[in-house]
Design goal:
The chain is globular and about 65 Å long. It has 260 residues and is mostly helical. The longest helix is centred in the C-terminal third of the chain and has 44 residues, at 180-223. Helix content is 72%, strand content 0%. The chain has eight helices and no strands. It has helices at residues 3-27, 57-61, 76-95, 99-121, 126-141, 148-173, 180-223, 232-259.
Amino acid sequence: MTTTLLLIYAGVIGAAVGSFLNVCIYRWPAEQSVIRPRSRCPGCERQIAWYDNIPILSWILLRGRCRHCSTRISVQYPIIEAATALIWIGSAAAHGPTLEALRAALFLTLLLGIAMTDAREMVIPDQFSLGGTAIGLLMAALPGGYPFLQALLGALTGYVLLWAVKLGAEKALGKPALGVGDIHMMAMVGAFTGISGALLTIFLGSVLGIVIGVPYTWASGRLAPKSTYLPLGVFLAMGAAVTWVFGDAIVAWYIAWIRA
């Protein structure tokens, strides 16, 4: 298979996965099935035909509206589909037709789903987090994959460490702190990145949350008092993505700096 054909194939598969990811983002927080009912227009509730459900292309051709009632269809649909396609293309370009490319594509897709649901609903569905943990461990168990012991220890580290942070923060603040969804998410991150990846993700996610999230939620709270909660999963997802791409380089730089 030529490189060009591989990237095209990865992009098509990624866009299709992104289409399903949209369904998960909308339905899992509401505890709805992602299988039934089939996709319908939110306005007239008519079932969307297959030719109006082609990732990215159908939204463009229909100009973001329902064919029957002209109800606007959220731009989130093509954006998520395109972002997922780019994730799969980038993974294939970086790793070729390998198990590692599939592992990278699945992990980054899960992070995108988590970031979107947490940003929209302040919820991280277990289907993404615990289901992702199972996927990470399963892929590590395959021959030639990421070392299974590292994946298992990473999942345990992420889970236990964030539980410790939660309990410590609640004791210090005297009120609930962190969500169980964040803890489950870190088990998934650890299953894909190992112990060092889990630790770096927590550090980067915390920094991003302080630098970006705190000012944003403070400003939002002044305008809308109910919008004062920090969707930590968004920033952990960002930190995990940075860790996946640059983690080895960051850890190597840090070790060299310590030894200097």
